[in-house]
Amino acid sequence: MNASTHELHVPTYARPVLVQATEPHPGLHVYPTPDEIADPGDTYVWRLGHHSGHVIAKFEQRTQAEDAARALGRVADWTRPAAGIRSDVDPEDVFDALGEFPCLFITDQAS
């Protein structure tokens, strides 16, 4: 799977944060946690995020994040804007789709 540059939405960081991300499902990106926002000692170093830059969950292994992205593909059309998905998709459906994967579910508010 080829990686491309992706800009993250990080409310607590003043500058844009760029990562090399893969897209295992249209609209969903998997990437390593960038050094700028990494927590020391955190073992959940792989992130699954929306193409808008908002993070959904973090994982210990890249393959877990990629498999979770494919499972989430059944929940919504992730190529849509984040605000539309937030208004149309029940967060419980996202949580349920991620439930079979060892991950930390991340919530943030769309701007």
Reported for the largest beta sheet, the result is: 6 strands, antiparallel
Q: What is the helix/strand order?
A: EEEEEHHHE
Q: Radius of gyration from the CA trace?
A: 13 Å
DSSP strand count: 6
Strand order of the largest sheet: 1-2-3-4-5-6
Counting structural domains, the number is 1
Distance between the termini: 30 Å
Whole-number average pLDDT? 90
Structure annotation, total helices: 3
The low-confidence parts are none
Helix content: 10-25%
The computed structural class is: alpha+beta
Taken from the alpha-carbon principal axes, the silhouette is globular
Beta content: 25-35%
What does this structure look like?
This protein is of the alpha+beta class and 111 residues long. The protein has one domain. Helix content is 23%, strand content 29%. It contains 3 helices and 6 strands; from the N terminus they run βββββαααβ. The protein has helices at 62-72, 82-88, 91-98, and strands spanning 4-8, 17-25, 28-32, 46-50, 55-59, 103-105. The protein has a 6-stranded antiparallel β-sheet. The chain is globular, with a radius of gyration of 13 Å. The model has no long low-confidence stretch (mean pLDDT 90).
List descriptors.
alpha+beta, 3 helices, 111 residues, globular
Task: Give the topology.
Blueprint: E1 4-8, E2 17-25, E3 28-32, E4 46-50, E5 55-59, H1 62-72, H2 82-88, H3 91-98, E6 103-105
Antiparallel strand pairs: 1-2, 2-3, 3-4, 4-5, 5-6
